[in-house]
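does this look right to u?? zinc ion version
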Amino acid sequence: MNEINDIITILTKLPGVGKKSAQRLSYFLLKNKHIALEISHIIEDVISNINFCSICGNFTTKDVCSICEDYSRDQSMLCVVEEPKDLLAIEETGCYKGLYHILMGSINPLDGVNPDKLKINELVERIKKGNFSEVLIATNPTIEGEATFLYLNNILSKFNIKRSRIATGIPMGGSLEYSDSLTLGKAISSKHYL
Ligand SMILES: [Zn+2]
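got this back:
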């Protein structure tokens, strides 16, 4: 049936889903129509209402996200991450109570991602305008994350602001997203100053 193939084909577009998994999921969805419809409604509803926070770049359904709006958080700390999923991973550790800045990627010249494609100018503007006393750089322990860190560190060294970086403990080639909260929490608590 072509219709079933349509579902299988669309599911293989998801990261980590190969043809076999897509087939399995498709037959599950066909058998469980109410779950399939619930998934499609929720995804449509959320995706059509979601935006990027105009301050930090996090996902939000409003102009400004709940973290940027939360004045009980430490307004003097700014943590720089690559993607919204990294923010989520750090939030789940419960070890960080400052604000965030999401770069929307990492420097990867081979893929055409040069520094000007990232939200680095926006970061510089926030630092110029804000009252931050410290920037914590939490890029991923990958080649691209490392290149991004070096680039940021150089730019930020021109400002009168404390710079720190999350500690290692996250293996090279790993990611913040897939680190367990304990390891990532430890990496944040034992950050080092640059
Ligand atoms: Zn925000």
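The chain is about 45% helix and 15% strand. idk if thats expected tbh
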